[in-house]
Amino acid sequence: MNDLSRANLAAQFSEQMTLAVIPLVAVIALGASAGQTASLQGATTLPFLLLSLPAGVLADRYRRKPLMIATELLRALALLLLFALFRTGMLTLTALGSLGFAMATGTVVFGAAAPSLVAALVGPRDLLTANRRLEIARSVAFTAGPALGGILAGWAAGTPAFAGAFLLSLASAYCLSRLPHEAPRPVSPRHFLHELTEGVRFIAVNRYLRPIVATAFVFNTSWYLLLAVFAYYAIHSLAFTAQTVGIALGVYGFGMVCGAFGYARIASHLRFGRQILLGPACAALAALLMAGTLHLTSGSAMRYGVVFGAFFLFGFGPIVWTISTTSLRQVVTPSGLVARVSAATMTATFGARPFGAFLGAWLAASFGTQACLIAMTAGFALQLGVIACSPAVRLDSLDTTPVD
Fold this sequence. Notes:
CATH architecture: Up-down Bundle
Number of helices: 16
Number of domains: 1
Order of helices and strands: HHHHHHHHHHHHHHHH
CATH topology: Growth Hormone, Chain: A
């Protein structure tokens, strides 16, 4: 598990640095508008919608280790090309979006294969601990990656960020290469399309996973409604600098770190169902804080505290949600379906990201950034309502979870 945690840390760090720098480069270096930055977010998250289900089938059919290594090398190649285009002054918004798409492909495969690999490496009683370790690594990346990316975006036009992300992707591929050898998996006689839809069908009939996936879909739509315009809104309406935007995203990661490291203490005070509820509740409160910035002037010192407080809550509660719901999914899902169910979950949740980003682009272009913040707040209220009515929040513990 140590090498997998290190690989996850390096891959997530690379992704978060890049995600923080791309919209800043678009706004500052390429003069992108709010609508263009939102469209860029949509393009760089589109692989989650288009490729998650096929990635899940591949991860259940073939060895996960070489699959994950190959896609990390693809991410590294895209970063190298992005660095070269930027240094030579040939980078355009179209190229930025296309290379972002390629980079996100690596994240999709990693996200589909990792839960299946974890379930194969550890027993059911150790799932919470194993998932917590992976989420701690991811949380550290979410904390340091955006902050460092924001700082580097204001220094040498951000090119060190692209170079650093490239090296981190290579490091992730190296750590993955150190994982135990996987035996070749038997060739499935079933049609690819049948396996493609099997994970979706399982989620549709499972009383625990169905509302969890619905909640995550609304959450991610609302989250990317915010992220689609945040850089533009923060710079032009709140008078943030590129570095301050990076720090705000870093506070989001700090909230994740606090939630991941504090999970054991939280679990000792909250029954399992309440742990699941905590994430959507924190997100709804954070959305209200972000909407409150509409009434703050750009010169108000309170804007920093409100924005940073909101991003902390966006990280703290949802990381507890991720640890608890991932473990629940691994327990209630048959072992041969874990990757496909994880991939179907990614399709519905991460696939909501381009939907939210493109919706943000339309709202920003038609009605302004204020409309995006209002819609985002309504979405986070909805996702809290969905999960509050589900049977998952009434579970006492993971050990006593009945399997459908």
